[in-house]
Design goal:
Blueprint (H helix, E strand, L loop, with lengths): L2 H21 L21 E2 L7 E2 L6 E6 H6 L5 H5 L5 E4 L8 E4 L12 E5 L2 E2 L21 E8 L3 H4 L6 E7 L6 E9 L3 E14 L2 E14 L8 E14 L2 E13 L6 E7 L4 E4 L18 E5 L5 E5 L4 E16 L2 E26 H9 L4 E4 L20 E14 L2 E13 L4 E20 L1 E6 L8 E4 L11 E3 L10 E21 L2 E19 L1 E5 L16 E4 L4 E19 L4 E13 L24 E15 L2 E18 L7 E20 L3 E17 L16 E10 L3 E10 L2 E2 L7 E2 L2 E10 L5 E8 L7 E4 L9 E6 L4 E9 L1
Parallel strand pairs: 6-9
Antiparallel strand pairs: 1-2, 3-8, 4-5, 6-7, 8-9, 10-11, 10-46, 11-12, 12-13, 13-14, 14-19, 15-16, 15-45, 17-18, 19-20, 20-22, 20-23, 21-26, 22-24, 22-25, 23-24, 24-28, 25-27, 28-29, 29-32, 30-31, 32-33, 33-34, 34-35, 35-36, 36-37, 37-38, 38-39, 39-42, 40-41, 42-43, 43-46, 44-45
Length: about 800
């Protein structure tokens, strides 16, 4: 842990702990802590990206929340699926348990991850940056019975009360033992292989001490046909809270060790036209139910951090290993509230998954590897060594897929954060003033190593075999399906290492004023950022006996090693963010607000190998910036009256983006653009006496590329994958004996790439749930995800239909049905 963070954490700990000891002799009920506030009269208290906990109708920000029970019943198969029910959020939940693309209000996701949105747990970032290459923040979090609710704030105060989140914040808030009890639940897949146990319990150890602990463990093939247990692992999280007169002190911890299969694009057949395409499954390969993962392709030889041979287990998939511990506390000292939130997270793991670099006629692919007249053989599986006499008839489709195995060691994504605040309020004849000031300190390490290989595999689901190629003379051109110990299909690239620390120090201040029904607030943040470390870019392609058998094979001659030169990274920057807004509460039920904000986002590892950072000096190149800015203006109305809740927010946003796409490394696809988007978020809940309830939200967005320094022909186009309208509808009927309902999410058409040619068809996904409570404390549930087995495509690599008609696209998962037995106590 780093000195500046330790110093601030120690000071805050001492202040809170001293106060706790001083008051311990006479404990009294504490004010509601930040992570689980007591509800106000209308039950809507916001704790995310605000200066102090505040009633939703009294604040000028756009915020939504989903309760823990709703999260369970909506049949989610990943954290990203939970976020689809939040207005303004576009969550492309097609990557498995993680690796989702998450965007807000039309702000771009030109490459991957959640660039302008920070994913938090209990008010601190899971990672400082949501789009670390092959380390997206959703990979390192899991939803289980520990979750009390999820809050999302779009725009507004996220710019100034959080670093690196100018688009918004999604905060996963934990239970902290306010309610005594817990539950244990056993879940099994009825039509897919996965078994899971969830459990949690919380309550009080004494009048002033409460706790909560919970977690899960699950194992199974997962929602697609992988041929092996693609999902295996679990999590334990917990906290203990000491309450005392004027405050509280909490210690929390998390241990996550999980392996989750990562689904990347799959080959599909596309007919029709770019503007009216028809996506079809290739015979033997369903894009929503199958995957190119296979039990006949579980181990691969690669090179380690020191260019030594090692074996990678492809079954590791996304393997997050997180060990974190933290504390948070608050103490009221003569009208000044001192609060602090600290967490240290030891984060590491791996990302490994097959990416289809190309798909085509089997003989043509073989000739591309071994020359004209090449022959092909099974390199793994039950037919290993057998020649494929008629490649055109292989699997009924006659296709082979060129695989680049994305294989990345997440050596360290260590993250240390501390958020210290002082708050006070005072009355005057004008009204009530609230003043909050503080400092945020963080260090995010990004130490990753890329060790990619290239393979040939059958184009089929349900356990494809690797393929070997012999040239016309019968000489083997591959080695157990391996074409090269590099990304040969990307020009031999992608042997890289980053080891960079990113320091963030950000003082901030917020001033609020309330008089009668009017609330005004303004906030300001100043971020000092520093990046220091080194980069090893692509080295030369050499000849090396990778498997150590004493024979130099053709793939051995295609081995890429790390560059021997470690290029420095050593730059700093500073920038300002601001936000100001007004909220007028016309009645207890109705309020309206306006807000304007500007916030920045440090680009981290996304610019290290572009044109922004000098490989010679480590400094930013002249005219380059490491920060992208988002400017948003919004106005909305909020209504609460008994069974009716309605929210509507109009927004106008502009953003800059510098980035590059690792799946397009052959051309090192650099992004340097400006965007503009506007639209409206709609959200409503209606509860009808008798047990019926319907919740719905929809977001209309008009987003355009306003400037493109790399490809000006994109100007005026809609950013790729940005739909005009996304929506969610959840009707349900509840009685004492049972609950039945559905969760319907959908999207209109979008474009696969920024050139705006090939479209991704809109789709609707229907999920359903039924819970029966035959006796007290016992609940039996059946949850169906994607009831109609819809192939809903969220992305595609091609910008137009190629001559072959084959496109690499990623779909949501197909239908999965699970049953659960839950006992509450």
């Amino acid at each position: 842990m780093k000195p500046i963070v330790l110093l601030l954490a120690s000071c805050a700990f001492a202040a809170v702990a001293t106060a706790a000891l001083a008051q311990d002799a006479a404990p009294a009920p504490a004010p509601a802590p930040a992570s689980a506030p007591a509800p106000t009269d209308d039950g809507e208290v916001v704790v995310t990206a605000v200066a102090r906990s505040v009633n939703r109708l009294s604040t000028s920000i756009s915020v939504s929340s989903i309760g823990g029970e709703a999260l369970q019943q909506n049949a989610p198969r990943s954290v990203a699926e939970l976020f689809r029910d939040l207005p303004g959020i576009r969550s492309e939940s097609s990557g498995g348990e993680g690796n989702a693309n998450i965007a807000v209000r039309g702000l771009p996701v030109s490459t991957g991850g959640a660039k302008f949105v920070q994913l938090q747990e209990d008010g601190l970032g899971v990672l400082e940056y949501g789009d670390v290459i092959f380390g997206n923040s959703d990979i390192f979090t899991r939803a289980d019975f520990n979750v009390a609710r999820i809050e999302s704030v779009r725009g507004g105060s996220a710019s100034t009360l959080v670093s690196n989140a100018p688009g918004g914040v999604i905060n996963i808030i934990s239970k902290t033992g306010e309610q005594k009890g817990g539950a244990v639940q056993f879940t099994g897949g009825l039509d897919y292989g996965e078994y899971r146990i969830d459990a949690d319990y919380g309550g009080r150890l004494s009048d002033s001490v409460r706790y909560h602990i919970g977690g899960f463990y699950r194992q199974g093939e997962g929602p697609r046909n992988a041929g092996y247990d693609g999902n295996k692992g679990g999590q334990v999280r917990g906290n203990i809270t000491k309450e005392f007169a004027g405050g509280f002190f909490r210690i929390n911890f998390k241990y996550l060790d999980d392996r989750a299969i990562a689904y990347l694009p799959s080959p599909v057949r596309v007919t029709g036209t770019n503007s009216d395409p028809h996506y079809q499954a290739i015979p033997g390969l369903s894009p929503q139910n199958d995957t190119l993962h296979s039990k006949y392709d579980e181990k691969v030889l690669t090179l380690d951090n020191n260019d030594r041979t090692r074996t990678t287990d492809i079954r590791d998939g996304m393997h997050p290993l997180v060990k974190s511990i933290g504390f948070e506390g608050s103490y009221d000292l003569h009208g000044v509230t001192i609060s602090d939130n600290f967490r240290y997270s030891d984060v590491s793991g791996r990302f490994v998954s097959p990416f289809p670099a190309g798909v085509g006629d089997a003989q043509t692919i073989a000739n591309g590897v071994g020359g004209a007249g090449s022959t092909i053989f099974f390199a793994s599986g039950p037919n290993k060594g057998q020649q494929i006499a008629n490649p055109a008839a292989l699997n009924g489709n006659g296709l082979l897929t060129q695989i680049v195995l994305f294989n990345v060691d997440l050596n360290s994504l260590e993250n240390v954060e501390n958020n210290f605040r002082l708050s006070t309020k005072f009355e005057s004849h004008l009204g009530t003033f609230e003043l909050t000031g503080g400092i945020y300190n963080a260090r995010q390490t990004i130490d990753t190593t890329w060790a990619w290989t290239s393979q040939l595999i059958e184009t089929k689901g349900n356990n494809a075999a690797l393929i070997d190629v012999r040239n016309a003379a019968g000489v083997l051109q591959t080695e157990n399906g391996t074409v090269g110990y590099s990304a040969s299909f990307f020009g031999g690239c992608c042997r890289r290492r980053y080891n960079v620390d990113y320091d963030t120090n950000a003082p901030f201040v917020s001033l609020g004023f309330t008089t009668g029904k009017l609330n005004l607030d303004a906030s300001y943040r100043y971020d000092f950022d520093k990046a220091h470390g080194y980069v090893q870019a692509d080295g030369p392609t050499v000849t090396r006996d990778v498997n150590g058998d004493g024979i130099i094979s053709v793939p051995d001659t295609k081995t890429t090693i790390l560059n021997a030169v470690r290029s420095p990274v050593n730059y700093s920057n500073a920038y300002s963010s601001y936000s100001f807004g007004a909220n007028y509460r016309f009645t207890n039920d109705l309020a309206a607000f306006v807000r304007h904000s500007r916030g920045g986002r440090e680009n981290a590892d996304r610019i290290l190998l572009g044109s922004k950072v000098s490989l010679a000096t480590g400094q930013l190149n002249p005219g380059a910036s490491a920060v992208d800015f988002v400017v948003q203006t919004e106005a909305g109305v909020k209504y609460r009256n008994g069974p009716v809740t309605l929210n509507a927010t109009g927004f106008l946003a502009s953003a800059a983006e510098q980035n590059y796409d690792p799946s397009q490394v052959a051309a090192l696809q650099v992004v340097d653009r400006r965007y503009r988007s506007y639209g409206v978020e709609l959200e409503g809940v209606l509860r009808i006496h008798g047990g019926f309830e319907i919740a719905a939200n929809g977001t209309y967005t008009n987003s355009k590329i306003r400037q493109d320094k790399i490809d000006p022909t994109n100007v005026g186009h809609t950013p790729k994958r940005q739909a005009d309208f996304v929506y969610s509808v959840t009707p349900q009927y509840h009685r004492d004996l049972f609950t039945i309902g559905a969760n319907i999410v959908g999207t209109t058409d979008s474009y696969t790439q920024d050139g705006n040619q090939l479209k991704l068809p809109g789709f609707t996904q229907v999920n359903a749930f039924l819970s029966v409570r035959p006796i007290p404390r016992v609940q039996v549930s059946v949850n169906a995800n994607n009831v109609f087995n819809t192939a809903g495509f969220t992305e595609a690599e091609e910008g137009s239909i190629p001559a072959s008609g084959y496109v690499r696209a990623r779909s949501i998962n197909g239908r999965t049905v699970s049953a659960s037995l839950r006992y509450s106590f």
